Amino acid sequence: MRMKFLPQTAAPPCGDAGLYVDIVGEGRGLLFDLGYAPRLPTRLLRRAQAVFVTHTHLDHFVSAAQFIRLSITRGEPLHLWGPPGFIGNVDGLFRAFTWNVSEDYPLAVTAHEYDGAWVRSADFSARDRFVLSNRRRRKAGRALIEDPSLTLRAAVLDHGTPVLAYRLDEKTHININKDALQRLGYSPGGWIQNLKEAVLSGVRSSTPVETPLGPRPFGRLREELVILTEGQSIGYVVDFAATRENLSRAAALLKGVHLLYIETSFEASEARRARERNHLTTTQAGRLARRCGAKKVIPLHLSPKYLGQEKRLYEEVQAAFEGKKDNETNIR
Question: pLDDT tens across 212-230, in order?
Fold first, then answer.
């Protein structure tokens, strides 16, 4: 099965946190955080349809101005997501620059902030010199974004300031068994898409679906022809304290993810320092990945002081992920 998600970290392990996920075949991508991103070429940044910022500490938001500069000529709306207070951060970003020659550019930005219950939004347009307008709010639903290809959800964690953790899920693949299609005498055509839409909408098994051989019960066609395959899922969680509440919220959001990108700012022996800085250690990150039931854990955002020692920290994460013995306290 070909996956639609192609993830790529934005910086080396001891650099700023960041992740770009290309949506294969759709000409778009999603960007997580706006720190210094030396691994991401301009062509990928310009494909980003939306940006999901965890929080606006410098190492997660320092490249926001450069990103806006790269996006200034884009005709499609750009959506920026972040934690409570994020609209004010985006407004401050735009107010830092002079826009008296911006009116000819098409860029329109909508900033959203999520607090776990509400989504607040506001608009900024190059044609209006990026003046904040159209403030509004709505009750948050199950997901921040849901379209035919993907679902994106978030949870609010604590890092001494609200931080968002994110989960991206590819929708279930609906494939047609071509051998069965031929064996049963069905010719391809537009009716196949109608069948797939019936699967997505969950119609009754008795509902008739038109085929080249006449109407057939949906349940029969599903049993004969449809192959359902689980889509890929990605978790992205950085910069939060290893408290019971944080770990429980993160585990609930990230349950069963295929790929878990997680900060590992400190080695296991520096648990006290990690507590003081509201960060995770290697073993805490590995244990959380195991608790989530993640298929694979990818450490990132290591402290720069571990430059050249990345392999050792990776091994500590993996040991905790695999359930090997360690002596560190997991929570406070």
Answer: 999 989 999 888 898 887 7
Beta bridge partners of 14: none
Owner of token pair 């990818």: 298
- Confidence (pTM): 0.86
The Cα 81–Cα 84 span in angstroms is 10
pLDDT of residue 2: 57
Structure tokens given for 200? 């997505």
226 near 176, Cβ under 8 Å? Answer: yes
CB 245 within 8 A of CB 175: no
Rounded to whole angstroms, what are the CA distances from 297 to 62, 166, 203, 235, 317? Answer: 26, 15, 37, 9, 8
Give φ, ψ of 165 to 5 degrees. Answer: -100, 145
192: its two tokens? 């196949």
How far is it, in rounded angstroms, from Cα 48 to Cα 68?
A: 11
Q: Are 80 and 68 in contact (CB under 8 A)?
A: no
CB-based contacts of 229, cutoff 8 Å, min separation 6:
1, 172, 173, 175
pLDDT tier at 1, thresholds 50, 70, 90: very low
CA distance 296 to 302: 18
Structure tokens at 108: 């329109």
User: What are the backbone dihedrals phi and psi of residue 71, each rounded to the nearest 5 degrees, phi first?
Assistant: -95, -5
Tell me the CA end-to-end span of the chain in Å, nearest whole number: 42
